[in-house]
Amino acid sequence: MKSRPVRELGENRVVSRFRALASATFGPNVVVGPGDDAAVLRVSDERLLLLACDMMVQEIQFRLEWAEPRQIGWKAMVANLSDIAGMGGEPAAAVASLGVPGDLPEEVAAGIADGLVTAASRYRTSFVGGDLVGSPGPIIVDVAIMGWVEPANLLRRSGAKPGDALCVTGRLGASAAGLVARRHGLEEANSSLLAEALRAHHEPTPRLPEARAIAGSHLASAMMDLSDGLAEDLPRLCGESGVGARLRAEAIPIHRACSRVANQLGLNDLNLAITGGEDYELLFTCPPEVVSELSVAVLEATGTAITVIGETVAEEEVILLDLDGMEQPLGRGFDHFAAPS
Q1: Residue 50, H or E segment
Q2: Contact in structure between 212 and 203 (CB atoms under 8 Å)
Q3: 250 near 307, Cβ under 8 Å?
Q4: Torsion over CA: 60, 279, 76, 318 (sign)
Q5: pLDDT number for residue 334
Q6: 143: closest CA among 202, 95, 90, 82?
Q7: Helix and strand element counts for the chain (H, E)
Q8: Shortest CA distance to 141 belongs to which of 95, 184, 177, 179?
Q9: Is the pLDDT of residue 340 over 50?
Q10: Alpha-carbon distance 166 to 285, whole Å?
């Protein structure tokens, strides 16, 4: 049989094959293996151990002409911190591997390291080691992180039930707006909103306090972070839970920076907000009768608003309802090995 390149399979199919292989290695302490934001190991009756890793590759996740070195390190760490948040946990410690060409200027490597350490320190995470290797290029930054969560507070992608409210923290699309602004050469001086979009893209914020408030309420049924875009991540949550979803276009909270940049470039801001990645907001579900209570709890604890963007349904299909109530395709989020259309 002819071998197929991974780009024809797509990221989700490649990962599913790894999951099938990995399951044979599980020991009795494995609570959650591949398929969530982090793996979960039972280490005591009081706490579960969370493990995650995330890699950034030059020219794919970052470009040196667009981002300062410290921003590259910061974002690499935040991507991992956000995975811990997606499980309702607290980060504890991280390590990083850095692959760089031998002729890379010292200040670039030092700047990446500074960003890693600064982000870890900002979110009370010990940066405890790593590895430095030579590479012919591109630059690779790979972070692995450990955290913890109480068994009662653990939230997975697999807990949603038909009829649950589908919710997000904050607003979507600012990071995607920052990326398209870079691609089109828009300058930060153009407006404060453009500057906000660029900050969101290069210096994102993990929703750790919000995650702890959601998990600690014991009102949510499932959760994950939004790293690859709502269009890519929502089907993943639905797939793990065995449900579908109905999104309402008018309910999607679009970041004002996304709307401004989209307007400048003649783009659809809703599409940008849904398909753009790296928002690092939280996507979660809960019974509709507890939405108000949960929203108040998170707002009081963190100042962050929660928006209901739709509901889960029994039919395993994800549908976007436009302003006229007509069904529309959801689009595609970020896929490392997206099959060509």
Answers
A1: strand 48-57
A2: no
A3: no
A4: negative
A5: 56
A6: 95
A7: 11, 13
A8: 95
A9: no
A10: 5
Three-state secondary-structure class, residue 110 = helix
Cβ-proximal residues to 155 (8 Å cutoff; 6+ apart), any chain = 86, 87, 88, 211, 214, 215, 220, 222, 223, 284
pLDDT of residue 10: 66
Asked if pLDDT for residue 335 goes beyond 70, the answer is no
- Domains of the chain are 6-153 (3.30.1330.10), 165-328 (3.90.650.10)
Q: Is the separation of the CB atoms in 290 and 161 below 8 Å?
A: no
Query: 252 forms bridges with which residues in the sheet?
Result: none
Please, is 53 exposed, middle or buried when counting C-beta atoms within 10 Å of its C-beta (0-12, 13-18, 19+)? middle
| C-alpha span between 279 and 172 (Å, rounded) | 6
| Ramachandran area for residue 79 (φ above 0: left; ψ -120 to 50: alpha; else beta) | alpha
Query: Is pLDDT above 80 for 337?
Result: no
Return the structure tokens found at 5. Answer: 């390149």
Please list the alpha-helical segments (H only) found in 49-189: 69-86, 106-122, 174-183
Amino acid of residue 285: T
Six-digit token string for 82:
């956000």
Name the pTM for this structure. Answer: 0.92
Pairing of strands 126-134, 281-286: unpaired
The values of phi and psi at residue 95, to 5°, are -130, 160
Q: What share of the chain is helix, strand, coil (3-state, %, to 5)?
A: 40, 25, 35
Between CA 232 and CA 331 the distance in angstroms is 8
Q: Which residue has the tokens 């790296």?
A: 278
CA-based end-to-end distance of the chain: 23
